[in-house]
């Protein structure tokens, strides 16, 4: 037996520490894992050898993980070789996974209820309808019009710019139209229903990713952090952010657990939801390429690992399909990008955003420019922390792509915080740090941030500009 079969080493940021390894878990020196699955992170115990560890997920080339279809982390050695409760019954694994995620979902729902209550109180004081702010303003009006009338609506502005509803991807309007057709809900209310349901699915997916890679405590903290973002109120609006984040999170989870066909299908649906769906496609493609290229296994994949190639083939269909359809409709290969240019959007490598920040820095009172510069620096620092923590490749690719597409795009600079909502992997370093605190301190920090976020969201939505 390898002398490291009883003890392993896991790396915490800044130091190495020893943890107790289950005798049922293969020694890491003899098993090569495609992705790093870390033990749960929590408050540092008084003993240098904590008893709670997570067994790694063992993968074999060309096969699904040797675990249940939904990975359930083990935080007690006494349960290491037992199935989750109810796993033997039809749907039992999903129910067990839902029970495991229940604390995270309840806490996330609490953040959303808090935000809605503060918005309603603020709206009553300001004489505005919270329902209208959430369902019938800004982009939600464009989605509702597409659901009711289809594509083809265009606005010509006085400055010569042209705003076409072809800039909006179709999955959310399709769902709004379908729900309103079979229920008494109006199209705007159907949009709110989609947002409410998919925000919970997104929270579940974010928890599943955090739980799989870092343990349940980090998964819960990560989910709540995503809910208390300063612009988290968008998750409750008739916008596409919640729908997209749900599809993206579960697609990344499917890649981590080697469910390649599911990863491709979810990536394709994400590509029908928002332009940033390209980030999910990149996560699937790059991870699959790394999976196949080092050993030169393309020919073998054609015979055995067909699911990898199937996932790669399916993933870009949604994004490419819509962009191609817009090109055909506008009689231009670059039709979709021309539509985006009409809105003042596009990709310029961040030059326009840098000029915008520079303009704020050279004109008094300078506070806005300094705050924005610090926010961008913090985002970059968080992503560097993700790299230093050796996050799994799908998380690094997806999170990095969302950051690049949001920060390096021109136009609508006030909307960039909203565009960064799907970048949940960037929050993982903060979730790990908070998970190591005592539960009371973690609750105090997250509760304080949640209150501040709810107040800011109410003030933000009562402003004049689009979120």
UniProtKB/TrEMBL annotation:
Q: Which GO terms describe its molecular function?
A: alpha-1,6-mannosyltransferase activity; GPI mannosyltransferase activity
**Which InterPro entries does this one have?**
PIG-V/Gpi18
Its subcellular locations are: Endoplasmic reticulum membrane
Q: Which organism is it from?
A: Streptomyces himastatinicus ATCC 53653
Q: What is this protein called?
A: Putative integral membrane protein
What's any one GO cellular component for it? membrane
**Single Gene Ontology BP annotation:** GPI anchor biosynthetic process
Q: How does it sit in the membrane?
A: Multi-pass membrane protein
Q: What is the lineage of its organism?
A: Bacteria, Bacillati, Actinomycetota, Actinomycetes, Kitasatosporales
Residue ranges annotated as transmembrane are 105-125, 190-213, 220-240, 260-287, 308-328, 351-383, 395-413, 419-437, 444-462
